[in-house]
Amino acid sequence: MAQTTLIAFYQYSGLKNKWNALGRMGRPPINFENTPGLTFFKPLGTGSGNGFSIRPDFSTFGFVAVFNTEEEAKNFLTSETIAEYKNTCASFSNVLMHTIKSHGEWSKENPFKASVKFDKSKPLAVITRATIKPKLAYKFWRYVPSVSKSMNGYKELLFSKGIGEFPLLMQATYSLWSDAESMMNYAYQNPKHAEMVKKTRELGWYSEELFARFQPFYKEGNLIPDFL
Question: Which of the 8 DSSP states describes residue 133?
């Protein structure tokens, strides 16, 4: 069975529900001992922009979890743990994905193992993640807003959200595209994105970075638009 990654987003309304969701970031009910097949887990806060964002979104929280098999990931979606996340949220989406390609590290490991062949005609999901060097954070955040705004207007971009473990320094973006060609057009032809890539190489903003592509194959919930 293929390794399977779950990315989950839960949106909350009401101060109490938002506060409880924030508390779950520090004390998540998910651990390796009580979750069969779990090999990697990170609770995630979110940003208010399309990608890396300096402004937090205190209504939306989530997590990424990697399982040894597709069966174990699907079983987890029916668990009491997931029910705890769902019970108080206003909307949510859970997306299961197989890794196409991944390079770099997240917390000193690459948790994503390629498990399917690349089908360019199917939807494509991307996680771009980095730990920003504190002494270079100011320069980094000077460039980010224009890059995030440059994602606007791409009708093939079905969903995008800034995610992160720690404000300002541990940041990531999850994006979902209708097909691979559209993502590649943005990555290599958008001048703002190209400038960001160039600056990254010149200035060495990151102490750790990871780039991973996925083929999503299952979704539940309505926070993310239907794409299958």
Answer: P
Please state, rounded to an integer, the average pLDDT across all residues of the chain: 86
With a threshold of 0.85, does the pTM exceed it?
Answer: yes
Confirm if 118 and 100 have CB atoms less than 8 A apart.
yes
Give me 118's structure tokens. 């690349």
Concatenating the DSSP letter of every residue in 151-213 gives: TTT-TTEEEEEEEEEETTTEEEEEEEESSHHHHHHHHHH-HHHHHHHHHHHHH--EEEEEEEE
pLDDT tier for residue 195 given thresholds of 50, 70 and 90: low
Q: How far is CA 77 from CA 14, 31, 83, 84, 141, in A?
A: 25, 15, 8, 11, 36
Return d(Cα 164, Cα 172) in angstroms, integer.
5
Which residues, at least 6 apart from 85, have a Cβ–Cβ distance to it below 8 Å? 8, 10, 24, 92
pLDDT of residue 8 exceeding 70: yes
Burial 209-219 (b: 16+ CB within 10 A, else e): bbebbbbbbeb
CA within 13 Å, CB half, 219: 17
Instruction: Provide CATH code, domain 4-221.
Output: 3.30.70.100
pLDDT of 207: 82
